[in-house]
Amino acid sequence: MRRAVALLVLALATVAPPAAADDTADCIAASEAAQSLRDRRALLAARDKLAVCLRDVCPAPIRSDCIQQRGEVDAAMPSVVFRAKDARAEDLVDVKVLCDGAVLATQEDGKALAVDPGAHTFRFELPGVPPVERKLVIGEGEKDRLIVADMKSGAPAVAVPGPTVKPEDEATHLWAPGLVVGGIGVAALVPMTVFWLSGTSDIRTMKDTCAPAAGGAGCSPDRVSSDRTKLVLGDLFLGIAVAGIATGATLLFTLRTHTGKELRGARPVLRLDASPIPGGAFVSAGARF
User: Fold this and answer.
1) Which of 92, 104, 111, 148 has the fewest CB atoms within 10 Å of its CB?
2) Nearest-angstrom CA–CA distance, 73 and 70
């Protein structure tokens, strides 16, 4: 149909003035070229050709045909939106984007850009940072597809309180609190055992020697108090051991994953409180990040 329209217009152009005939020929050629480019899915080039046959100098049948083609091209034309992020997940602006080697944008402004459908290699460039490439297939008619480039080395240097956590050290910062608290709990088992064994042994000796049931005159209050203190201290270190091991296990197995931004400058603060109470001890442990 478009071929028939072009032939009809060309026939009418042969009786028009030379200047008008030249414009008509250009309009017909642009319309036919646009159709060929559309068939090859070169939609950007087709849109440029359609701009030629949409001019007022073009005959009405050709312009009408090109208007229809332009609507179809716009509907099929995919578009993309670029985002470049630094190590803190913040937007970068002065990033140049190339599509298959051709410059598509000189900075990130959040605007949608038209591209041809098909496979493309997008390259993000920022001075002083290794370029980032994304190989993607863009579908026909796909609109405003978001393409994000993670340019971690592009994070500007900023002053932050405390030490900076390097990526390779993040695992240490995640595991260290659990290991330290758990280690305190395990270590508390040693004095707990010593105090319990010593106190229990002394009480058994008193029962066999100075207790009235054994025919003694009664054990001295200082001796009884000393042995009871040993048992209380044993209970105290038992509480420390239980709290430390339980808290350490919780930190190791349920500690949520932190991002590099959250860990940056973080220093774990450990807290362990213990105090004797009548008949035992009260122990609490915790960690702040």
Assistant:
1) 111
2) 5
Cα separation, 114 vs 218, whole angstroms: 99
Structure tokens at 124: 């993000």
Closest by Cα among 74, 78, 75, 73 to 137 = 78
The β-bridge partners of 97 are: 105, 124
pLDDT band at 198 (very low <50, low <70, confident <90, very high): confident
Question: Biggest alpha carbon distance in the chain?
Answer: 144
Q: Which of 86, 143, 142 is nearest to 111 (CA)?
A: 143
More confidently predicted of 18 and 106? 106
Q: Dump pLDDT digits (tens) for 250-263.
A: 766 665 444 444 44
Cα distances from 267 to residues 56, 142, 231, 286, 288, in angstroms, run: 71, 46, 37, 14, 9
Note the pLDDT of residue 222: 72
Q: Is the pLDDT of residue 117 over 70?
A: yes
DSSP class of residue 235 equals H
Beta bridge partners of 134: 122
Q: CATH: 3.10.580.10, 3.40.50.980, 2.60.40.1120, 3.30.930.10. Which one for 79-154?
A: 2.60.40.1120
Cβ(245)–Cβ(254) below 8 Å: no
Summary count for the chain: helices (H), strands (E): 8, 9
Domain ranges within the chain, ordered by starting residue: 2-76, 79-154, 167-288
Rounded mean pLDDT, 79-101? 92
